[in-house]
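Following up on my earlier thread - several people asked me to post the actual chain instead of describing it. Fair enough. Here it is, all 113 residues.
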Amino acid sequence: MLPGGMGLDPRKMQKMMRQMGIKSEEIEADKVVIEGKAKRIVILNPSVTIVEVQGKKTYTVMGEEKEEEKGISKEDIEMVVKQANVSAEKAEAGLKKNDGDIAATILELKGEG
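Reply from S.P.:
Thanks for posting it. Predicted structure:
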């Protein structure tokens, strides 16, 4: 609602934003990961919106927060096990070697890295 109780149709809002040079886009995501020095925050079932104003992008993320100590998560190990077809021990060792980089670990363990 706008001040004075006036509602605004989302399509009209999008049109007004475009006229002002503001682009807004919803993107599909399974999860969003924010890596910090001591911890990582995982947002599950996120709603992600990109707003672009004068060439600068702002990302808005809403969802279920799951905070983790920095390290290798069970989910990451399971993903590498499935994708690279290796044991959990090999997956974990690969993730540690690659500083938790899932893609690099999968490629390396599949012999492509």
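DSSP finds four helices and four strands in the chain. That should answer part of your original question.
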